[in-house]
Protein: Alanine--tRNA ligase
Organism: Ferrimonas gelatinilytica
Amino acid sequence: MHMTTAEIREAFLEYFRKEGHEVVPSSSLVPHNDPTLLFTNAGMNQFKDCFLGAEQRSYVRATSAQRCVRAGGKHNDLENVGFTARHHTFFEMLGNFSFGDYFKHDAIRYAWTFLTEVLQLPKEKLCVTVYQSDDEAYDIWAKEIGVAPENIIRIGDKPGKPAYTSDNFWQMGDTGPCGPCTEIFYDHGEGIWGGRPGTPEEDGDRFIEIWNIVFMQFNRHADGTMEPLPKPSVDTGMGIERVAAIMQGGHSNYDIDVFQRLIKAAAEVTGATDLDNKSLRVVADHIRSCAYLIVDGVMPSNEGRGYVLRRIIRRAIRHGRKLGATDTFFYKLVGELADVMGSAAVELKQQQAMVEKVLKIEEENFARTLDRGIALLTDALDSLAGKELDGETVFKLYDTFGFPADLTNDVARERGFTIDEAGFEAAMEAQRQRAREAGQFSADYSKVLTIEGSTIFTGYDRDQDSAVIQ
Ligand code: ATP
Ligand code: MG
Ligand code: MG
Ligand code: MG
């Protein structure tokens, strides 16, 4: 059976709605209830207080298609983009949640029914993991669902490490709700590098994790003891792009409808001809995170969330140059993005002009130093004796040319080099020290522009011209 990404989203929400779940809209990428979290990175974020019992809602079961960004903080997949078939900076997580209502039996049955009956995935392609000591989940899979024992893999703790380092044990923080997970994997078949979960080759792209089901079963206290929760809960997450890859007969997420259209659009605006070029995937990935972050109120800046956004934009622009773009191109993808994201693009459509403007200005600004920075970096790499680029050069690229360190690293990595991150940090610290001694604040030429009543732009790097939109 073939399904579009939009059809999968609809089918998922509809399946869980029929099973008594409230369909809850995606929340913002900027978490409103958790200052410790850089960006929303899972469907459960917006329900955190429901799980903690601090918030009561009119429902005890919910389902959502949550926009997520994993480009910093605890989950950072930025470096994976373009290298694996399955990681994005921005993706949609489909999830179902039980707030002290159903638990393991129903959660596992729902997931299995959705995959094998609604999506009609062949059972023999699926395998599951459970946490080492979670006999209850093991027995549900083996006896109630009928998964063959060789396809149920117990995953333990990492050697010498505490439980939460296991892929199959989840916790909200050092204290609070925690518990075992069960994950469902799809085997994309021989010929693709990778091994079953729990083997040394598991990080390959053959067995791809599609769904994680977390059982919030315990409350961990500060002294490390774990007390069973009186009303255990369920939190699940399934990446829509990974499922779409399967439902559309492909392997890589970049083969799916949404990405193919973005990749074609990116090829058009950059002049690239080889649609398999890795940089096209990077650009197609990055336009999604950048556009949605701006929609959710993040603006390019030199710190915090804004700097993560700036870093992603600059990376995309660098890849665009590599593809042959000679002029600003990135903002031109916003329209296509708004078209392909369907019901997930309501806010993006409303704010399209603003998003384009922010991206365009950011690109024009970076374009002034990009070529000279690339020339300097190329020379430095050409004349490198060893394999590591020194921290001073990385710092100079940052300070004078506006190259975030991860961008420099991205270029270096393409040529088999690494960068001296510690040396870069030391150079940064030395600069901060100089600034402190000179009694300055770290200069900030931020300006705020108001267009049609909404604040849309805060200015530029201290190292760039203090360009301001007029
Ligand atoms: P992986 O091990 O593949 O990195 P994960 O264990 O980090 O995934 P979870 O935190 O369990 O992922 O998130 C739930 C689901 O969200 C995953 O099973 C996967 O389908 C999807 N997902 C996670 N990270 C990404 C990403 N960077 N891009 C696309 N989908 C993702
Ligand atoms: Mg991960
Ligand atoms: Mg995983
Ligand atoms: Mg997981």
